[in-house]
Design brief:
Layout lengths: L1 H16 L4 H39 L1 H9 L3 E6 L6 E2 L5 E14 L7 H12 L3 H10 L8 E5 L4 H10 L6 E10 L7 H4 L2 E3 L2 H6 L8 E3 L2 H5 L1 H5 L3 E7 L5 E8 L6 E4 L3 H10 L5 E6 L6 E7 L13 H7 L10 H4 L9 H11 L8 E3 L2 E4 L2 E4 L7 E3 L1 H6 L3 H11 L1 H10 L21 H8 L5 H8 L9 H12 L4 E3 L4 E5 L5 E4 L4 E4 L4 H16 L16 E7 L20 E8 L6 E7 L5 H19 L24
Parallel strand pairs: 2-10
Antiparallel strand pairs: 1-8, 2-3, 3-4, 3-5, 6-7, 8-9, 10-18, 11-12, 11-23, 13-16, 14-15, 17-20, 18-19, 21-22, 22-23
Amino acid sequence: MILKRIIQKIIRKYFEEELLTPREIAKQRQYFIQANRVFLSLIAIAMAFIIGRLWYIQIHEYNYYCEQASKHRIRIIRLKPPRGKILDRYGRVIAGNRPRFNLCIIRQDASGHIPELLMKISKITGVPEYKLKQNLLEGEDTPIYKPIVLLSDIDWKVLAKIEARLYSMPGVTITVDSQRRYPLGSLAPHLIGYLREASSSDLKRFNDLDLGDLVGKRGVEREFQNLLAGKPGFKKIEVNAVDRFVKVLSIKPPIPGDNIYLTIDADLQRTAQDAFKGKMGAIVVLDPRNGQILAFYSSPGINLAWFSKKLTKKIVSFLYNKDTHPFMDRVVQGCYAPGSIFKIVVAAAGLQTGVITPSTIFYCPGYLRLGRRIFRCWDWRGHGKVDLYKALVQSCDVYFYHVGLLLGSDKIAEFAHYFGFGEKTDIDLSGEVKGLIPTPEWKLRRWQEKWQDGDTLNMAIGQGFVLVTPIQAARMISAVANPNGLVLKPQYIYKIKDWQGKVLDTFKPIVQWRLPVKQKFLKDIRRALEGVVEDKHGTGWRCKIKGLKICGKTGTAQVIKQAKRTRERKLEWKYRDHAWFVAYAPADNPKIAVAVLVEHGGHGGSAAAPIAKKIFQCWLKLQHPRPEIQSPMITSISNLKIAKLY
């Protein structure tokens, strides 16, 4: 109505000022009426749009804008769970936790002040500003309302300085999580593994991870990341206009990670590591009754505490040394010629196929002539008349040359697979290799050369192309020690408990297959292996212990071919032979089996057997002060079948 009156006043004023004909007056009146209608329609449309938009924002999108508004007064803090512990079979902590304080920044709250904040933090902590910027850029994919770790594991002095200045640094906050600590030192470092900050690929693999979280990179830490990590919680707090804490609104506590008990015995493990000081190689100790790993060490070892902080150039240089390769887990990744420990396989194959009997005799003059080539025995003086017992006890090469020719390469390869060589043990560790059991087909494919009888002779004494890993050697001697000839999967998990102490899972032995060798033949081999240590002519006499009957086999594996045998001390260290020793005890009721490899150690009897002796001595000593832990054993073998392996 007001608008209509205004238009009428304008028309009257116009009529007074202009002399128009009645037709023109009617025309002008009609024009103003139409303009009035258009103007009113536009106003109506605009009002409808405003009302509709208000309805959409205030009613339809109420929850969204309410949440956005609450963010200005509510902060959701992610609570990291304590990581589960790793313990030995007796409950001694191998990898525990300690608190770690991290300096973080929330970009949403620090908007417009980030350069100034980085400069302040740099002055307080002494960390170069470019490093802080680099850490900030690494977290650029993180949502702006989540904290980005600028500095992890800051010390108490820096923490105090930061806390005193937090009021003047909007968006800067301190978070607390756990950091690994190792009360017993770096026990079984390659088996335990280590933690590092999660990478972008880790964040994609695990949903519960945030940038700056720690994740397992190797060993148990990696294989059981989901169990050890736990589940994060959340704390909702109210803050005022200057982002200061007001009150806690709600808390969802984190769920701590599960605790993993290993089959490792910390005392045996420490003995194994001490015995390898100054040496390179690997040692595995198994329980032949169930496949439990009692000790597991790759030398040189690594210090797990190094990975709690940023690695220095000196440490990185050590870890990636091309000569010593400390980062490589030799237990499951190291491939070596087995030398004379492979003679156990050849002896079993010869007896089972009938090409020899325990009383079959071959004469050893110290060499075997094959065509124009001469294949020598390790003892150039020869062993004279040799039967199976003497051949294993004194490790006569010539005897096994003859057996190898009678068997042929295919039959040797077949039994090698049955004893677990050339096959992964399926231990729950990434990176395990298969080793190599050569065949004529393999040589033709690999080298474009035909198989020769000389290759068979080398294969029969564990030389040539044959390659095995220490874990395979341990599984092999455990199968020989097992009363039923069972090949058991090596395992290192004893039990898993949640943070409340409830048992979630326990160890169960896994039978992989059974040796296709008659018990009477295995008894002949075991008797000879006992002679290796107990007989005065045995090559493993340095492992002899009063009061404990030990069965074993030495092995010496050449690293380079020698036209004429050179004395060990005259050779450069890296060209010296590898030393092997595999053994089990007690002879009549095996409870422990050991495989020792000393790289470039020389003879197995002089370099590897003394290390095994220390293990047996430690084990024997530990039997008296504490009772043996009862673990599931194999009780029935009636339904077992020999596996087809290849």
